[in-house]
Amino acid sequence: MALKCAVELGVPDAVSKSPEQPISLTNLATALPLHPSKNDALRRLMRPLVHAGEGEGEGEEEDHYSLTTAGKLYLRGGFGPSYLDLHLDPTTMTSWGMLSAWFLYSADAVPFEAGHDGASFWECLEKDPVQKKSFHDSMAADSVLVAGVLVAECREVFDGVESLVDVGGGTETMAVAIAKSFPKMECTVFDLPHVVANVKEEEESGVENFRVVGGNMFDGIPPADAVLLKTILHDWDDEKCLEILKSCREAVSGRDEKKKKGKVIIIDMVVGNGDVVGNREMYQAQFSFDLLMFATFNGKERDEEEWRSLFLAAGFSGGYKIIRSLGPRSLIEAYP
């Protein structure tokens, strides 16, 4: 909550724009601007953030500040502000207040629904334009980060792929980034009709190999060489994931056998993968996200054995490959 307050005050931007580096407490308060009577309160607000690694403090009383790499994520337009708005929104926070009551008394599928008279997160999202904007902004900002790594370090994933469908990619950010990096690949955003209603197609976006299709992934997915699922499956329980994966398998199975085999590209966590176990912060992040999925969506973060079981149950007989290039998340290729 202290970080949310600092971001809402504009602290990261004020620190970043200051010609004085590191900026003093007094000048930071002036830049925000705050009444001088709030200076001591600002110092106390900044102190835990400095020790959490969101900023760096200098001086005997740590009253001069500069931005760490983590702190730069919270500049306006970056990943952090919308992410904080989404997860610290009172509607979202209801899940955590309902945990013990849900365990003891509730018949609702997830704690979130127990706190909202049985309404799901998605139903509440459609009724709250502020939270809806935070959700889509955070997904778009996250896609910018992931797309940068994907096209820079994992280009081989797209070898031989002439067409790709980004399922649930309603913000268009990921598909457009891939389309720009691979101009010979036809990239399609596939999401619910009302989600993609305002997504710009090729004539407006300036990307010729990009298009938009509305539909429901549970009813079927447009055929393609590859289907991309970025942070989609962790929102759903195993039964729903099997439905989605079966639709994906059908979409990538109807290719010319002379060409490279189709595949499903999944960007999600593999809990306890080799790169994470030795990193306490990443491991903790995975467990925290698993709690978030269970409390809010009836979803889950899965370990490798759970992923393997899903692929086999969905009819993927060609095996899978895990690429660990995305911090606590991984890129998984599943072959039909």
Automatic annotation (TrEMBL):
Give the domain of life: Eukaryota
**What Pfam families does the record tag this protein with?**
Dimerisation, Methyltransf_2
Asked if the Swiss-Prot or TrEMBL record annotates the protein with the keyword S-adenosyl-L-methionine, the reply is yes
What PROSITE patterns does its record include?
SAM_OMT_II
- Catalytic residues (UniProt): 234 (proton acceptor)
Instruction: Return the SUPFAM superfamilies for the record.
Output: S-adenosyl-L-methionine-dependent methyltransferases (SSF53335), Winged helix' DNA-binding domain (SSF46785)
Stretches assigned to the O-methyltransferase C-terminal domain? 96-317
Annotated GO molecular function terms are: O-methyltransferase activity; protein dimerization activity
The UniProt record lists the O-methyltransferase dimerisation domain at 1-76
Keyword list (alphabetical) reads: Methyltransferase, S-adenosyl-L-methionine, Transferase
Q: Name one GO biological process term.
A: methylation
UniProt protein name = O-methyltransferase domain-containing protein
Tell me which species this is from.
Linum tenue
